[in-house]
């Protein structure tokens, strides 16, 4: 976001379609018509979001930070292509088809599953022809850190800021991230030299196809910010400069405030910071017993049990992706 001269940045745009629009996949706002309307995104489809990104790029390279699960039906449901992006299945005498009878995000009828074709092995609602235009990189974080952080944003006092009053384990996103990652590898869009034991060194690609796998761990970013950002830039073809780690200007903070405004409460630490420096002490890994005790003290017995179950459910997917992460 500090490279406004060469990059046009978008912060989680596909969440608009996933939660609020006529092609929505998520259940969080399904029974909350007022919440969907208040978002201002009831007309957002996957196509309108792509159109918005294209219009705003102004000839710059596009950088999108987003969640894989915004592109994939929850709970391992089978995917078919979003109606705005693909061909709709048509029966005899059919001249027009809408999504489960829906015409906009104000419908009370859940729009998924779509009446559209699927692509073989594609876990997303985005056609491969579109996915193939993007250079993917993956940022992971251990569930023992991410899940309690997410839970905290769904409980008092933060819930009144975020507007999220329930914790939904299926929004953790690790399963979806792994399935997207594996799909992109299976079609050669991203390639690795040595599979899950990769050291993160640059891969030359398989038969000249795809780009190297770029997986980064948030703990590495916090411990070695300059090295990690420089490695990311090298991997995706962006010129690295040390001042990327500083966002202390008024213009930087104005841009961040605007980008994060629709997700209030989720990015306060970033908004209140000015730069990224190595943390003084590496994060100490706690025992399972210590983690459970901490969560019980903060959130209560029942909540600690839910957090533990969600963390444990997602560790395997995290560790799988971690096997591809760059080493620092």
Top keywords for this entry?
13 helices; globular; 328 residues
Secondary-structure map with pairings?
Layout: E1 7-11, H1 15-19, H2 33-39, H3 46-56, E2 61-65, H4 128-131, E3 138-140, H5 143-152, H6 159-162, H7 174-186, E4 190-191, E5 211-212, E6 215-217, H8 218-223, H9 225-236, H10 250-260, H11 268-271, H12 288-299, H13 301-322
Helix pairs in contact: 5-13, 7-13, 12-13
How would you portray this structure in words?
The protein has 328 residues and is mainly alpha-helical. It has helices at 15-19, 33-39, 46-56, 128-131, 143-152, 159-162, 174-186, 218-223, 225-236, 250-260, 268-271, 288-299, 301-322; strands spanning 7-11, 61-65, 138-140, 190-191, 211-212, 215-217.
Helix content: 25-40%
Q: Which secondary-structure class do the elements indicate?
A: mainly alpha
Oligomer: single chain
DSSP, total strands: 6
The span between the termini is 24 Å
Put simply, the count of helices is: 13
Question: How much strand content do the residues show?
Answer: 5-15%
With strands numbered from the N-terminus, the spatial order across the biggest sheet is 1-2
Short description:
The protein is mainly alpha-helical. It contains 13 helices and six strands. A two-stranded parallel ribbon has the order 1-2. Strands 3-6 form a two-stranded parallel sheet. A two-stranded parallel ribbon has the order 4-5.
């Amino acid at each position: 976001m500090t490279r406004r001269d060469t990059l046009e940045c978008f912060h989680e745009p596909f969440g608009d379609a996933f939660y609020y629009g006529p092609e929505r996949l998520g259940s969080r706002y399904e029974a909350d018509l007022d919440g969907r309307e208040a978002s201002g995104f009831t007309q957002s489809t996957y196509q309108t979001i792509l159109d918005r990104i294209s219009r705003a790029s102004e000839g710059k390279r596009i950088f999108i930070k987003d969640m894989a699960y915004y592109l994939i039906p929850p709970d391992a449901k089978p995917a078919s292509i979003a109606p705005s992006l693909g061909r709709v299945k048509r029966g005899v005498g059919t001249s027009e088809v809408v999504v489960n009878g829906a015409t906009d995000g104000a419908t009370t009828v859940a729009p998924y599953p779509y009446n559209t074709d699927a692509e073989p092995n594609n876990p997303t609602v985005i056609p491969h022809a579109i996915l193939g235009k993007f250079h993917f990189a993956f940022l992971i974080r251990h569930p023992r850190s991410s899940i309690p952080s997410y839970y905290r944003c769904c409980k008092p006092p933060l819930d009144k800021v975020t507007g999220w009053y329930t914790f939904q384990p299926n929004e953790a996103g690790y399963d979806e991230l792994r399935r997207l990652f594996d799909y992109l590898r299976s079609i050669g869009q991203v390639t690795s030299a040595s599979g899950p034991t990769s050291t993160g060194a640059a891969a030359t690609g398989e038969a000249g196809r795809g780009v190297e796998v770029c997986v980064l761990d948030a703990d590495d970013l916090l411990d070695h910010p300059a090295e990690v950002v420089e490695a990311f830039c090298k991997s995706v073809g962006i010129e690295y400069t040390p001042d990327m780690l500083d966002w202390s200007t008024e213009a930087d903070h104005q841009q961040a405030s605007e980008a994060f405004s629709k997700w209030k409460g989720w990015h306060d630490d970033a908004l209140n910071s000015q730069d990224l420096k190595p943390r003084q002490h590496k994060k100490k890994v706690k025992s399972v017993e210590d983690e459970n005790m901490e969560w019980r003290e903060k959130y209560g017995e029942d909540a600690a049990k839910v957090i533990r179950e969600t963390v444990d459910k997602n560790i395997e997917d995290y560790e799988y992706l971690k096997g591809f992460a760059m080493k620092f």
